[in-house]
Design brief:
eight-stranded parallel β-barrel, TIM Barrel, alpha/beta, globular
Length: 269
């Protein structure tokens, strides 16, 4: 579909240096790359500059749909919460320098009171407005806090903010015990980005970790049905290859990126 553009999540080709990741994404044919905040910080600490990163992105014609990630903002209180907000402000301003549109806001691993989730997400969105980079609510299938689409969607709705969005991901949907039908709960206009990956067979999904993810179409996930529901939702943004598989990290990063792009195109092209 011409409405979709293809993105490479930088995690897919770790431990490749960030500037090489940008080059590979551009040379392979991606339109965008998702960057990680810690890698940008490490690049600066090693003597590089964010201006260099931005120039490399521009030279390769790459957009930055998201930078990853914001932590500690949900379920925290008092000084801990304020510290998380201060950290978020710095990270959002940092992300703005590479031209990011959004920054992924991750939930905590442990169970927390979600009754204030909407208010805390709205608070984060207000920081994002000031920085020019809007936080996007993420659910993570392996955590005990926000691990399903309905939980994330309720936080987005409770935030009551026009720019509140959800990050969608096949692995997290299935790992969190969710269903394909839940994809249809979220209108495409409220989706920040679709990560794209698959779950392998031979191991119960509810026992899998990030490291188990495989290339889209190489696993047993109901990706064709998800694709249909994505199209029906009216989503018109990026689909981003996001993997954390050690086996891919040991291969040629350019080849991994190329194969991943080809496999995504089998669904959306």
């Amino acid at each position: 579909m011409s409405d979709f553009q293809y993105c490479l999540n930088a995690s897919t080709i770790r431990p490749t240096p960030v500037m090489d990741k940008i080059r590979i994404a551009g040379e392979t044919g991606y339109q965008a790359i998702e960057l990680w905040s810690n890698e940008l910080t490490e690049y600066e600490q090693g003597g590089g500059s964010i201006a260099d990163v931005k120039k490399a992105l521009d030279d390769h014609g790459l957009a930055v749909p998201t930078v990853i990630a914001l932590f500690g903002w949900l379920g925290s209180t008092g000084d801990e919460h304020q510290k998380a907000l201060d950290d978020a402000k710095k990270k959002l301003e940092h992300a703005a320098k590479v031209g990011a549109k959004r920054m992924i806001a991750s939930p905590p691993r442990d169970k927390v009171d979600l009754s204030t989730g909407g208010a805390q997400y709205r608070e984060l969105l207000k920081l994002g407005e000031a920085a020019g980079v809007l936080p996007a609510m993420e659910f993570l299938g392996f955590v005990n806090s926000v691990h399903t689409i309905p939980q994330a969607w309720k936080i987005v709705q409770d935030a009551n903010h026009p720019d509140a969005t959800v990050v969608m991901d096949p692995f997290h949907i299935l790992r969190g015990g969710g269903s394909v039908e839940q994809v249809s709960l979220v209108p495409g206009s409220n989706v920040a980005i679709w990560h794209w990956n698959d779950v392998p067979g031979g191991k119960p999904v509810l026992e899998q970790s990030d490291a188990d993810r495989v290339m889209p179409g190489d696993g047993v996930g109901p990706l064709k049905e998800m694709e249909r529901r994505i199209l029906d939702s009216g989503y018109k943004g990026y689909v981003s290859l996001e993997l954390f598989n050690q086996a891919y990290w040991e291969q040629d990063p350019s080849e991994v990126a190329r194969i991943g792009l080809d496999k995504m195109r089998t669904f959306f092209a």
